[in-house]
Amino acid sequence: MSETKTPEVRKIPAPAVSIESKPFWDAATEGRFLIKRCTSCGEAHWYPRPICPLCGSEDTVWEESPGEGVIYTFSVMRRSPTGPYAIGYVTLDEGPAMLTNFVDCDLDQLAIGQRVKLKFQDTENGPPVPVFSPV
């Protein structure tokens, strides 16, 4: 197998910021991770949006999350012009799954079910984005 130790920090383009997502990105700039919770069905959801994707209610609120969870699945991209990197889904402790990048880790040591913690990574001329690294 090829060696894939901790990769260099990969540049991530700035996310699109909308009226609905602006509170999320403002909090990210402050180092806080927000998710949405529906007050009708009680479920948390990701990606933050004004209407609950589970029950259709418009009764949603912002909630701060510690950003902890487990790797649900992942893939290591070894043939990238920018060098190897890993993406995958993390199931947050609150329940929702989110697509993310994995950073600050030996890519060969990532495992399904592994505990991870959120951190924010700077983007090119935009707010920081959530990424995860092993605990």
Write structural notes for this entry:
It holds the Pfam family zf-ChsH2. Residues 25-59 form the ChsH2 rubredoxin-like zinc ribbon domain. This is Zn-ribbon domain-containing OB-fold protein. This protein has 135 residues and is mostly beta strands. It has a single domain, classed as OB fold (Dihydrolipoamide Acetyltransferase, E2P), CATH 2.40.50. The protein contains 1 helix and 8 strands. The strands form 2 sheets. A 5-stranded antiparallel β-sheet has the order 6-5-4-7-8, with no helix packed on it. The chain is globular and about 45 Å long.
How do the strands and helices of this protein lay out in sequence?
Blueprint: H1 22-29, E1 33-38, E2 44-45, E3 60-65, E4 68-77, E5 85-92, E6 97-102, E7 115-121, E8 129-134
Antiparallel strand pairs: 1-2, 1-3, 4-5, 4-7, 5-6, 7-8
Percent of residues in helices comes to: under 10%
Strand share of the residues? 35-45%
What is the overall silhouette?
A: globular
Mean pLDDT: 93
Could you give the order of strands across the largest sheet?
6-5-4-7-8
Overall structural class, as computed from helix and strand content, comes to: mainly beta
- What's the number of helices? 1
The parts where pLDDT drops under 50 for at least 5 residues are none
CATH top level is Mainly Beta
The count of strands amounts to 8
Compute the separation of the termini in Å: 25 Å
Which properties best describe this structure?
3-stranded antiparallel beta sheet, globular, Zn-ribbon domain-containing OB-fold protein, NA-bd_OB-fold, single chain, 8 strands, Thioester_dehydratase-like, ChsH2_Znr, mainly beta, 135 residues, OB fold (Dihydrolipoamide Acetyltransferase, E2P)
